[in-house]
Design goal:
417 residues, alpha/beta, Rossmann fold, 3 domains
């Protein structure tokens, strides 16, 4: 089942995987609309349907069999405003991370304090060294937490308190957490150990369904990744970054849409460029990991004519990447003819996302995709299940996939088997 996309039948899916069944039904309906109305409308159909799904108002797409009438109704759907972070005010700093790095070095402490006064979210800017970003963002976190308490905004208050607890939970001898992004919409980026001084940096992009509880996924997952790197190369310094600064899909139905990844790709690329810009000494090795829907974000970040500042890409539990072949990706410092050697993929045979529709293209474990595929074990090999899709399963020391992931993170992808 490495490259297969099975069709177990609607009755099985309805009984055992209803969310995936719903995603497949909607994808099939959209495919019929586009087939009749023309491929040129596909972007409009998918984006407007995505907005209808997010509003909880999309039953008419399934109920009305008149494709032209459904398309007319979709055109009347008002676009949803993206849940982005705070606007980046013009305070005289360059936006390009490489230019910002040089400008930041020339600023005095008084200059930096004044800039923070003008923009409390100054620490979110890629190109500022991570130690300084952490200092600025922790200071802003205290203010955000205070304001959430005062306004009795319990969702934000709970989230900011949880983030503060994570930052304060460091034990002696453990690496520091560097807070690289925080905003009022509970978007977050942080690194376990300072990537500016790391030999290797792994970037874990945020998957779907983590709105408001990203830390419950991110904190243990980055720790697992760093442990795998230490087992693979104990003498090297490895930092693991988590980047979750985009609007994520929140259900299986929402994950059929590429627009979340398309809209988040520019931010993901800028974060990677910032990692390169602020790194000290010889260039470090960067690996980008996309688990679940984050593989779609990874594919859009490195595909479509764009280039991602990374050395290797790993797709984990992915049912599509937004690209048709590994050669469509572009990685910095990797010659186009060698790209496929730096694109890796693994999928458990029991992972239930095998059953997802193909709205993001072929499985990256399909031999025709051209990635370097390595095996993962299955907890329940005789049936599709959600346990096999969990990140902590793919990264468990008992899973043969984990050792290969550790090798890739530490720049030894040539040893993957």
């Amino acid at each position: 089942m490495r490259g297969a996309r099975p069709d177990p039948g609607d009755s099985y899916l309805q009984e055992n995987h209803l969310p995936i069944f719903s995603a497949r039904v909607l994808a099939q309906r959209l495919e019929r609309i586009i087939l009749e109305m023309g491929e040129g409308i596909s972007e409009t159909v998918y984006r407007r349907t995505r907005d209808a799904v997010m509003r909880g108002n999309y039953e008419y797409i399934l109920a009305d069999q008149n494709n032209a009438r459904v398309f007319e109704a979709l055109q009347r759907e008002q676009p949803l405003a993206a849940a982005s972070g705070p606007a980046r005010p013009d305070i005289g700093l360059p936006r390009d991370p490489r230019q910002l790095r040089h400008a930041w070095e020339d600023l005095s402490e008084a200059d930096r304090a004044e800039l923070f006064h003008l923009d409390p979210f100054l620490g979110n800017r890629n190109g500022i060294p991570h130690a300084d970003r952490d200092l600025l963002n922790r200071r802003n976190l205290d203010d955000l937490l205070r304001r959430a308490h005062e306004s009795q905004d319990f969702n934000r208050s709970d989230y900011f308190s949880q983030l503060r607890q994570m930052l304060d939970a460091q034990q002696p001898g453990e690496p520091r957490i560097y807070l690289a992004h925080i905003d009022e919409n509970r978007r977050v980026a942080f690194s376990l150990d300072d990537p500016d001084f790391a030999d290797n940096t792994a970037v874990l992009l945020g998957p779907a369904g983590r709105d408001g509880d990203a830390l419950e996924y991110a904190s243990p997952t980055v720790a697992q990744l760093r442990e795998l790197a230490l087992l693979s190369a104990p003498g090297a310094r490895t930092s693991v970054s988590y980047w979750d600064v985009y609007q994520q899909p929140q259900s299986f139905v929402e994950t059929i849409f590429p627009q979340f990844a398309q809209d988040g790709a520019a931010g993901a690329r800028e974060f990677h460029t910032g990692l390169r810009a602020t790194h000290e000494g010889s260039p470090g090795h960067i690996t980008t990991l996309g688990h679940s829907y984050a593989s779609v974000l990874t594919g859009h970040s490195a595909g479509g004519g764009a280039r991602l500042d990374t050395d290797d890409v790993v797709f984990i539990g992915s049912w599509g990447t937004g690209t048709n072949n590994a050669s469509e990706l572009s990685l910095s410092g990797v010659a186009p003819e060698n790209t496929a050697d730096h694109v890796f993929s693994t999928m458990s045979s029991g992972d239930h996302v095998h059953l997802m529709p193909d709205t993001h293209g072929p499985l990256p474990t399909d031999p025709e995709y051209g990635a370097r595929t390595f095996e993962s074990m299955s907890l329940i090999p005789d049936r599709w299940n959600g346990y096999d899709h969990r990140s902590d399963f793919y990264l468990a020391s008992t899973n043969p996939a984990a050792q290969n992931i550790g090798l890739i993170i530490t720049g030894r992808g040539d040893l993957v088997s």
